[in-house]
Amino acid sequence: MQQEMGQLNIQLNNLMLENRRAERTLRKENEKVETEIEYLLQNFDSEMEEKQADLELNQTEYERLEEESRGLEKPFSVLEVDYNQIMERRRLAEEKRQMEMKELELKIKAAILAQAWWRGYSTRKALKNKSLTNKASKNKDKGAKAKKGKGKKK
C-alpha cells in the first residue's frame, strides 16, 4: 500500500508538473494573445483618430466651401440679372434692326415702283409730245402744200 501510495504520489507529482508546464504554456500564449489584442486595439484607435482628424478636416473644408458658395450666390444672382437684361436689350435691338431692315426694303421697293412709274409716265408723255409734234409738223407741211394747190377760198 505504501508502494501504491508512493506510485500515486509520483503520478500526482508528474501530473502536477505537467499541469504547471501546460499552465505556463497557456499563460505565455494568453500573454501573446493579450499583447496582440492590445496592439490591434492601439492600431485601431490610431487609425480611427486619423480618420476622425481627416473627417473633421473635410467637414471644415466643406463648411468653408459652403460659405464661399453662399457668398458667391449673391453676386452671381446680380450678374445673372444683369446678363438677362443685356440679352433682352440685344434681342430687342436685333428685332428693331430687323424691323428697320424690312421697313427699308419696303421703302426701297416703293421708291423703285414710284421711279418706274414716273419713268414710264415721262417716257409716254415724251413719246406722245414727240408724236404730236411730228404730226403737227407733218400736218403743217401737208397743209401748206394743199393750200398752194387750191387757191383762194370764196
UniProtKB/TrEMBL annotation:
CDD domains for this protein: IQCD
Compositionally biased tracts (Basic residues): 145-154
Regions annotated as coiled coil: 5-68
Superkingdom in the source lineage: Eukaryota
Region: Disordered, residue numbers: 129-154
Pfam families reported for this sequence: IQ
InterPro entries, per the entry: DRC10, IQ_motif_EF-hand-BS
Subcellular compartments: Cytoplasm, Cytoskeleton, Flagellum axoneme
Entry keyword set: Cell projection, Cilium, Coiled coil, Cytoplasm, Cytoskeleton, Flagellum
Subunit structure: Component of the nexin-dynein regulatory complex (N-DRC). Interacts with CFAP52.
Family: Belongs to the DRC10 family.
UniProt xrefs under PANTHER family: DYNEIN REGULATORY COMPLEX PROTEIN 10, IQ DOMAIN-CONTAINING PROTEIN D
Record function comment: Component of the nexin-dynein regulatory complex (N-DRC), a key regulator of ciliary/flagellar motility which maintains the alignment and integrity of the distal axoneme and regulates microtubule sliding in motile axonemes.
Protein name: Dynein regulatory complex protein 10
Classification of source organism: Eukaryota, Metazoa, Chordata, Craniata, Vertebrata
